[in-house]
Structure formats: structure tokens, C-alpha cells
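S., here's the first fold you wanted:
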Amino acid sequence: MHDPKVVAFEVKRPWPVKRAHTLGDTRFYPAIVRIWHVDPETDGTDRSCGRLSYVEGRPWWKHPRWHIWHWEIQIPMLQNFQRWAWGRCSKCGGRFSWGYSPIGPWSGGGPRWFQSERGIYHHGCDRSDMKPQTDSAKG
């Protein structure tokens, strides 16, 4: 099953971020506000609004991107602030630096006001990458 969310609009900031790469410097304009269209999945698929079967003859206001009752607004800088200010590692209790992407479950609820997310870890604190010990290795 696919994610029912698709980006409808992005409001990008007017000044670019410069990134150095081996092939040369690149610039991109990060989003200040991102508006998602969340399909209600009324027919059991993520296409019930017709976003993948758009017909050119349809009036502009019937396009799924204009279903404002299905919109979800995301402000990335606010999410970064919430994680920086209140986010804590579930193992060591340490804070996350600005813009850090911790390891966590896909089903997490995301940052909450004045509370840390549940089940997020620093990359060094998460031990899921280590092989489990067998009985013979325990010795």
C-alpha cells in the first residue's frame, strides 16, 4: 500500500542554500511551508480523489490539489525546532542537534508540543545494526 499523501504546494524561501558536491556547487530553495493532499481512501485505494487519473477536460477547481478539506500543512522549520527543543533520545536521554535526523519508527506520531517523540534514538544509541549473539558466542 502506498502513502496517501502527495505534495500539493510548496512555498519556498527566496534565498538559496548552497551545497558543495564533487560535481560542483548546487543551490536549492528549501520549503518554508509544505501543503500535502491526504487522500481519504474512501474506495480502499490511495486514488479515491482521482489524483492519478486526472483528465485534462476537468475544470481547475476539481483537481485534487484544490481539495482544501484534505490538506495537511507542514512547516519544516517548526518541526526542526520542536525536535531540537524537546526531543530526547529514548536510550541515553541526550538532546538532538539542530537538523539532526534520529532513528525511529515509521509509525511514530511525529514531534509533539513540549514533549519528546517516543522511540527515537541517536545513530550511536540504536543497536539494531548489531548482530544478535548466539548461545555459543555467549560462552
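And the second, which I think is the more interesting of the pair:
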Amino acid sequence: MATQHITVNGVAASDGGFSPSSNSDIIGNASDGDTGSSFQNTSINQSITFELEGVSDYSVLSGATITSVQAIITMAASGKGSAQATVRLKDGTGEDAEVYQQDSLDTSNSSQTDLSGTTTNNGGSGFSADQLNDMLIEVAGIEGALNIISRVRVLVTFTAAANPFISKISGLVIGSVNKVSALAKTSIAKVVAVANYFDRSAVAKSISTGTSEAVYISDSNGSYRIDHNDAFSVSFWIKVGWNVSLNTTIHLFSSSDVAAAGANADTFRVFYIENLNRLMVEWRSGSSEKKHNFWFFHSNSSSNNNSADAFNAAGLGTTFWNSSNRGNVNSDGYTLITVTRGTTNSAASSNLNAYWNATSLGVGFYASGGGTGTPNMGNSTDKQITLGSTSWNFLQSGNNTETKFNGVTVWDKKLTSAEVTELYNSGTVMNAESHSAQSNLVGYWKWEGNGNATRSNDNFTISGNSAIVNK
């Protein structure tokens, strides 16, 4: 059987007495997959009841048989005793609501800890799509505890609906891709011959964590001191190595202050939340000073914040992004991910854009941008940049096998759609120094033999089992 995490997207009832006080901020912190953003009760024994995203938001659940559900929260103690909460899965907010499952969860850990309730199969009958759509998850403090909660979700176990046409459709698609690739290779050979540019290698980030396995730069000359109002673009080719068992977040590109103690040290990051199938971009200077947006790939709905754009751009279909389903890739199995940001301190689509190859992912989930507060990222501190892990503690590096990166570029401007298309180069990794915007290219790494920079003086350190490999 397959599983799918369903996150929260609304508040059905609340006693109040939480920080942040805004329900929208609480929802953002509880659903963004980031353990660095949280909410907590400011009064004792307060209760909040969340609504869940609907079945229609997850293509994999279309027509599926839902066998069981399980509540999961990620919580930490405040330092004033254990964190303790009663978690209920139920079908309403009234006293007569049916409670499917109730659990008392607690932890004395001061770090965010995943706490799982009991799996319930509804007396053996499972759950209908309507029951899942109407399901609520209540989190209530008990025993006067002060609870710091960063994530709230429900794990659904299901059997997918059979689709006899998928293999036929896949066969047609693969045939078309092979034809396109054959034509592209002819053009590639001509371009390479003219430019005398060779692209043979990539860097593979190991699935092990820590500094001893990292791929990173600790800048010392101010090359990447980008603040919250600086125009900025980052682009990289990626061949994913994680599989469907990852069930958490992998950081793809991350930048924080050198020697950062946590995620709030002027961080800019591009990361993928595998269990939610979301590509997320965020910059932050504090837990309540951050801007972000995300694009999810599993809903082909023009009415769902234009998610159809991301669905079609990625080409992943109803299966999440992983090493067995890389979506729209070039002939070597790589995808070009590009993120562009303008000079406004906002994650709205007018300022922040993301691209899969040469195709825009469209309006992010938050049409006007998500986040809270106003990030104030200083540009007086050198930055530490990582590939394939967090930049402050070198964690969240995936599973299964190494993820490969190639043609990593950093620009001091917001690349236009046409410039992203030029960089994509019909699927061929190009020499970025021949790009029309090359005067704005401030960082460029080819990975041909080492991690040395082609543009800038900042070379990547490649540690442990991470290595330069054939692409």
C-alpha cells in the first residue's frame, strides 16, 4: 500500500491564545514543512482545530481506496517542562462530532520531534473521499504545557486506483522523447564543436550529512552578500537520487551567514519537500521574518492557484519527484531548476519566479507571496553556500543514492524568461560565460575535475563520499 501526507490549510476553530496570533500565519508555519517555523500557545490548555487539504489536491488519491489515517505533529518542549497535547481526528467541531482517533502525545525534547498518533482504519471500513475531505485535526494543550509546534499533518494509507492506460501513454511519451533527443544530439554536437566547450562531469552529493560529507563554500571576500532587496538568480542542473521513501525535505541550494547557528541567519534556500511534492523558495532573517512561496506538482487544476502550470512544466504526472520519476529531463536525465528574484522584499509572482527547464512554474501557491514579517537580511556578513544540504548544519541530504548537480550559476540580476530559455539551451548544458547576461554572472561552477569556480574566486569544498563524477 502507498502513503501520502496531507497537510493543513485552514483553521476550523480556535480558543485563541497562540503566537503568532494570526490564523494565516499559524497555517503557514504548520504546513510549510520547515521545523524552523512554529506556533505555540501563550495561554495554558488552548485548543486549535485545523482543516486539511482536500483529496482533489492530491492526484494519487483520485479513485483510491483509503484504508487508514494517522495524525502526526512535530513538537518541542519550551524549556518549562514537557510538551503535551491531545490530538484528535474528527468529523466536526461540535460536541456531537465523531472522533475517529484520540491520542495524548508528549515530548521533553527541546528540539522539534515527530510524534505520531495511533493509526485508525475506522473499524476496518476505511474512509471515503468525503470523510477525508471533512476530516479535522484538533491539537489541544494539556497539563498546562507550553507546546512549540512546527508541523501538523495526517498520514493517509491507500491503494491507488488502477489505470490500464498509463503504460500505453508512457510508451508513446518515451518514443517521442527519444526522437527529440536524437535530433537534439545532432545540434549539440555542432554547438560543442564550435564553442570547444566540454561537459563531462557533475558533483554528486552523498546522502550522508555533516561537514565531512558536504559540498560547500565558505565565502571570505564578500562575493555573495545578497540582502532582502537585491535582485538575484540561481540556476542548477539536477539529477535526483532520492526515492519515495525520503518522506521529508531535501535542500538543493542553500545560503546562510558563515558559522550560522540556525536557519534564521540570513538564509536563502531552494528546497524540495518530498512528502508534499513541493518545490519551495524562502529567504529569512528570523522565525517571524521570512518570505516564501512554493509550487506543487500533483494537481492539474487551473483553479488551484494555477498549479496546472507546475504540473505540466515538471511532467511528473501523478507520481512525486524522485529517482524513478524525474519528469521532463534532458538526454542525460537532468532538470534545470532556475529561481529568479527581483528587488522587492516579496515572494509574490511579480517578484519571485521558478522554472523547470525553460518553462515557468507559474504563480506560486501564495499569489501575493507567503511568509510573515519583514526579513532584514544584512549584506555585511560573508555567506556559506551548500548544494544538497542545509547551509547552517549540513543536514537534509536525501536518501537512496547521491543527487548530482551540474552547471551551477549565480547571477546578480533577475533573469528574464528569455534569458532562462537561453540558459536551458534546448537541454544542453551551456558555457554560461557565453550567455547574453554573462556580465551579471557572479558565480559559475562546471565541476570539470574539481569544484573550482570558473567565475569568482570561491571554490567548493567537496568532502567525504561526495565527489566529482561522470555526469
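Why I say that: The domain at 196-470 is CATH 2.60.120.200 (Jelly Rolls). The longest strand covers residues 2-14.

Talk tomorrow,
H.
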